[in-house]
Amino acid sequence: MRATANFAQRSARIMRATANLAQRSARFSRHYHKSILTVLLLTLSSSPHAQADPKKSPAALPAEYTVEHLTNDVELPDLPAYPNNKRKLISALSFPNVSGGPCYVFRYGANEDSKQILDWYCAALKNYNWKIERADRSVVIATNKTGSWCNVIVQTAKNGERTRFEVQYRVSGKVN
Asked: What confidence tens digit (pLDDT) does each residue in 64-78 have?
């Protein structure tokens, strides 16, 4: 439970850093901030450890906040997928009605260390003509020419656990 809380806190910090990066980049759509905050809110609130407010009905939420729990991977346009034999899907969410384009959040487990996973994504995203906006020891943030963005967040494995990583992807409304 503590690892999940730490991962959620790290995700929140990275999402705030992503929002700050977006403010400095004129290439992002005006809906970027709203979309990324929506993904953050819904990702954290969809955690099994999050408690629902009994006073609010899910029907009262705007359609933009609709969450679909996916049982399988989805092939996403122009986004390389970490090799199937090296990853195991833990959970997947889709936010199909977010203004500006749908968002996806996939959580995986892998036996490779965090550096291998991040290095693979940096190289693969570059091969797909994505621009790496930020890359460090726990995150890769990238954008492409259509306005889509991708965040890969890695939680380092401890005590023999699998490395966990999350791929957050927003498909721009400009996809051909």
From this structure: 778 888 888 888 878
73 CB-contact burial (10 Å; exposed 0-12 / middle 13-18 / buried 19+): middle
- Residue ranges of alpha helices (H) inside 30-136 are 32-45, 114-127
Where in the chain are the domains? 2-170
Nearest alpha-carbon partner for 33 in 21, 45, 19, 17:
19
CA angle 112, 4, 49 (to 5 degrees): 145
Q: Whole-structure pTM over 0.70, yes or no?
A: no
- Are the C-beta atoms of 154 and 118 separated by less than 8 Å? yes
Using CB atoms within 10 Å of the CB of residue 155, give its burial: 0 to 12 exposed, 13 to 18 middle, 19+ buried. buried
Burial of residue 135, with CB atoms counted within 10 A of its CB: 0-12 exposed, 13-18 middle, 19 or more buried: middle
